[in-house]
Amino acid sequence: MTTVHVTGVLAALAILLAIGATLYWMLHPPTTSAERAARLTERDVAEMIGSVLVVFSQEIHSEHVMSLAARVARRERAQLLAAYVIEVPHTLPINAEMAAEHREALGVLQVAESIARANNVEINTEVVRARQVAAGVLELAKHAQVHLIVLGSYREGKYTGAPLGRAIEVIAAQANCDVLIGIQGTQGTLLTPPKRDAKAVAR
Amino acid sequence: MAASALGQRVVEEPSLRRSVTPWGSFAWGYSDVGADIFVGLGLVLGAAAGASNVAFLFAGIVYVCIGLAYTELAAAYPVAGGGQYFVFRGLGDIFGFIAGWAVLLDFTIDIVLFAWSCIDYLSKLIPVLSFVAHPWVHFCVVLTVIGGLAALNIIGVRESSAFNEIVSGLDVVSETSILFFGFLFAFDPELLVHTMQIAWPSTFGLMNGVSLAIISFVGLESISQAAQETQRPASVIPRSSIGLILTILIFALAYSNLALGMHPWHALPKDALGHTQPLWQYLGNQDNNGAAVAVLASYVPYFGTLAALYVPVLGAILLLISSNSGVFGSSRIAYAMSGAQLLPSLFQRVHPRFRTPAVSIAAFCGVGVVELVFASLPSLSPPVKLVYAHFFRGESGITFLGDLYAFGAAASYSFVFIALIALRLNDAQSPRKFKMPFNVPFTYRGNRVEFPLVAVLGFCGIASILAFTMITHAIGRIAGPTWIVCGIVGYMVYRRYKGLPVLRSQPHDWRKAQINILRAAGELELMDEYLTNVSRMDERAATVNAAAP
Questions:
Q1: Which of A72, A111, A134, B29 has its CA 20 to 30 A from that of B372?
Q2: Of the candidates A5, A8, A23, which has its C-beta nearest B243's C-beta?
Q3: Residue B331, pLDDT above cutoff 70
Q4: Is the pLDDT score of A160 beyond 70?
Q5: CA-CA distance, B183 to B185, in Å (whole number)?
Q6: Which residues of A touch B (CB under 8 A)?
Q7: Among residues of chain B, what percentage have pLDDT more than 90?
Q8: Mind listing the pLDDT tens digit for each residue in B177-236?
Q9: How many whole angstroms separate alpha carbon A43 and alpha carbon A118?
Q10: ipTM surpasses cut 0.95
């Protein structure tokens, strides 16, 4: 036997509403100043990272930071651009053929593309020719209106005593946007360039 | 937690990890309080009949006051210990002991009552477990459940927080659905008014009903117990406590009104004399009072078909969790009381292999077993039934346990209200992120304090419920005070043996304790506020002393 009475209907709806409202209110407690600060920072960073430029060159090895940048770009839905800068000596014209360097650039960018694909992020790649790496990066960043330049550095040979390298220092000093530099600590391993067995890679 | 200073590593004492979220905090309380309505509904319908909704309303108003008091205190002192700690801090050692001892009585009853009711709910699917038809089987199964819970807690196995959260979530959805469909398809306000008129109980019955209705609201302790593990306790606990208070209040009022004013979907079985019986009477009889929610749900139109299958199981799981919360709640309280030298250090003893307070668990589960024996005896042995009929008005079974539960709850809650007033006066400098409403500001010993009117209202309410319990329950009148008196005697012997003050309190550095509590809870802003308040108070005191001749 069923009895639908207007009071019953109103009571049923009131119960549903009251329980729903109570639980909603309960699950949204006021935030602390620390949480508010963290939320603001998150929002700022989310707004900041609209497009990310990851830089490679003969001296700048950014494979590992590229992986980190891809994860950030995926989370923030940012555009990702990977660029390899070929430094052309003043003794050569800017469009001179540098087959070995170009081949190297394509190989590195292919790795970058694979990393992006593995992280399910779309990526644009570009080979840039410049007289100086720093100038090339700065020009590209300005042209592409990037919000963040990401590059990696590691201690090896000539970097001893000057771990950042001149190009990185110039980029950091003159870039209009934010620059994220991965610097390897003395015991760090994350930024160490891959030393893989060529045969294993080929397999 | 570790801190580094001048290259040296300074390791601080370990603290509980703050992993309990707002929903987790709610679930902690809900798995305890939420189970109460499963037990309380049938008992109150049996006692207060047509005034069951009024009984729940009265107890509900008192419960709101209790809830607000616990919310304020748990947010101000986010430390594991709950009501016992608040009374200990506000009123001193001996009252802290009495409140803790009353809470311990409740926890031991909690173990038995919910294990009992859990089996009652399962008996709706497995009839051989019915207490009325097979008392020995019922007794043995409940005993096994208690033994099993004790063993699991000694070994160190507990249900996970995630399990608690899932069961609580399912139960909130389930109960809301039962009420929604019940009111939508079967509620008749004219039947409600008619039932209230023809089945209005005697004053004794109403007092009995009110004293039993309070057991539907026992268990707020659990949120306070988990305060030390809750994220941002000063912000989260007020919300989860008030959310819990409102949810339980809505359920209790809605269930009682629905039971009195609902047309059952199917015809109810006739009573022993062959008469047609109304739903509320059917739910409150001895066959069904232990599983009233499941029975009511099965008579809800349409939804009842599904509810009849799963509500007994869901209810049984929730009741089992609640029973388990009695096991670890009692051991936690005993451990804390032992640390404060209110109980012998025996209760702090940890099992060498399992690292659990095995002595506490075994001792209080043992008390639970004794209570189970007393509750079951009349049904197991006919001569004992006559004795109970003569001395205790025949109270036995789940009513016996309900009586004692109501006594323990009313006694401990009474102390909490007094402690809240004392702490408002003596510890005004502790920041309170939540305060009970309706306060009267005045100056006390040179400090600006606020007197809580709601606490006075709540105290009067719970004191009246305590009085109702003593008047209407023969068992509560005898066994409850006996438990308290035995505890006080034991406390006095222990304190004298240890050379500690018996009636006075030991010196406590509450300032240092409060700073440590707030720091451990991660409430750094409140800690800063507390330090500012304390230094202001000291400056004021110094100024007064300097001005004195």
A1: B29
A2: A23
A3: yes
A4: no
A5: 6
A6: 1-5, 7-9, 11-12, 15-16, 18-19, 22-23, 25-34
A7: 40
A8: 999 999 999 999 999 999 999 999 999 999 999 988 988 888 777 777 777 677 777 778
A9: 26
A10: no
pLDDT reported for residue B16: 47
Least CB–CB distance from A2: residue in B179, B186, B254:
B186
Residue A189's pLDDT is 65
* Neighbour-count burial of A94, counting CB atoms closer than 10 A to its CB (0-12 exposed, 13-18 middle, 19+ buried): exposed
CB contact set of A184 (below 8 Å; sequence gap of 6+): A152, A153, A154, A155, A163, A190, A191, A192
Kindly report the number of other CB atoms within 10 A of residue B514's CB atom.
23
Residue-by-residue DSSP string for A14-66: HHHHHHHHHHHHHTSPPPPHHHHHHHHHHHHHHHH-SEEEEEEESS---HHHH
Q: What is the pLDDT of residues B60-114, one digit of tens each?
A: 999 999 989 988 998 888 887 788 899 999 999 999 999 999 999 989 998 998 8
- Look at B264 and A29 and tell me if their CB atoms are within 8 Å: no
* Contact (Cβ atoms closer than 8 angstroms) between residue B472 and residue B406: no
Does position B421 have pLDDT exceeding 90, yes or no?
A: yes
Q: With an 8 Å Cβ cutoff, are A29 and B232 in contact?
A: yes
B180, A30: Cβ pair inside 8 Å? no
Q: Which residues lie closer than 8 Å to B41 by C-beta, 6 or more apart?
A: B216, B252, B255, B256, B259, B283, B292, B293, B296
Contact A23 B189 (CB under 8 A): no
Element (H, E) at A99: helix A99-118
Does residue B23 contact residue B236 with C-beta atoms inside 8 Å?
A: no
> Is the pLDDT score of B53 beyond 90?
yes
State residue A41's pLDDT score.
81
Band (pLDDT 50/70/90 cuts) for residue B34 is: confident
pLDDT digits (tens, 9 = 90+) for B299-310: 999 999 999 888
Where is B447: in which H helix or E strand?
Answer: strand B447-452
Say whether residue B250 is in contact with chain A using an 8 A CB cutoff: yes
Q: Partners of A85 in the beta sheet?
A: A57, A128
Would you tell me which residues 335-374 of chain B have a C-beta closer than 8 angstroms to some C-beta of chain A? none
The CA-based angle B258-B260-B264, given to 5 degrees, is 70
Architecture of domain B2-466: Up-down Bundle (1.20)
Show the domains of chain A with their CATH numbers: 50-202 (3.40.50.620)
User: What tens digit of pLDDT does each residue of B447-458 get?
Assistant: 888 999 999 999
- pLDDT of A64 > 90? The answer is no
User: In which residue are the tokens 């009573």 written?
Assistant: B271
Count of A-B CB contacts under 8 Å: 90
Distance from CA of B210 to the nearest CA of A (A): 23
- The C-alpha angle with vertex B219 and arms to B217 and B224, in degrees rounded to 5, equals 130
Distance from CA of A19 to the nearest CA of B (A): 6
Residues of A in contact with B22 (CB under 8 A): 26-27, 29
Task: Give, in order, the Cα–Cα distances in Å from B418 to each of B79, B83, B223, B452.
Answer: 19, 11, 20, 10
> Which chain B residues in 204-233 lie under 8 Å from chain A, judged by CB atoms?
232
Mutate to test the interface with A, among B177, B183, B249, B258 (most CBs of A within 10 A): B183
Q: Which of B26-30, B87-91, B134-138, B216-220 has the lowest mean pLDDT?
A: B216-220
Tokens of B389: 């009929």
Chain B residues whose beta carbon lies within 8 Å of the beta carbon of residue A19: 172, 176, 247, 250
pLDDT digits (tens, 9 = 90+) for B469-480: 888 887 778 888
Residue B449 carries which DSSP code? E
How far, in Å, CA of B388 to CA of B395, rounded?
7
What pLDDT was estimated at residue B10?
A: 41
